[in-house]
Write a structure and sequence with these properties.
- This protein is α+β, with helices and mostly antiparallel strands.
- It is built from three helices and three strands.
- It has a three-stranded antiparallel sheet with strand order 1-2-3.
- The longest helix is centred in the first third of the chain and has 24 residues, at 2-25.
- The relative contact order is 0.18.
- A hairpin with a 5-residue loop joins strand 1 and strand 2.
- It has helices at 2-25, 54-57, 62-83, and strands at 28-31, 37-41, 47-52.
Length: 85
């Protein structure tokens, strides 16, 4: 009986570890409210990629671009946290 429970417990732990590994490799993306910037983050919240909408880029101030980047990064990190709970 104890051996069976140990085996089942190990199997559950391995499935959980596999899900965590898979989640860490998944890229989660989000955009700012204006669609100027899209940011992709890893499951741990690390920023992996940033894309800027070239059609809008020339029409914004640098401070607005910076704000859009921060907004998109925070949104992507928030999504990553929600997905990996």
């Amino acid at each position: 009986m104890n051996r069976e429970l140990t085996t089942q417990s190990e199997a559950v732990e391995e499935r959980q570890a596999a899900r965590r590994r898979q989640a860490a490799q998944q890229v989660v993306t989000a955009q700012d409210d204006w669609g100027l910037v899209e940011v992709g983050v890893a499951g741990n919240g690390e920023v992996l990629e940033v894309a800027i909408n070239s059609a809008l880029f020339e029409h914004v101030k640098p401070s607005d671009l910076a704000e859009a980047m921060l907004q998109a990064a925070r949104a992507a990190q928030r999504r990553a946290r929600q997905l990996h709970r």
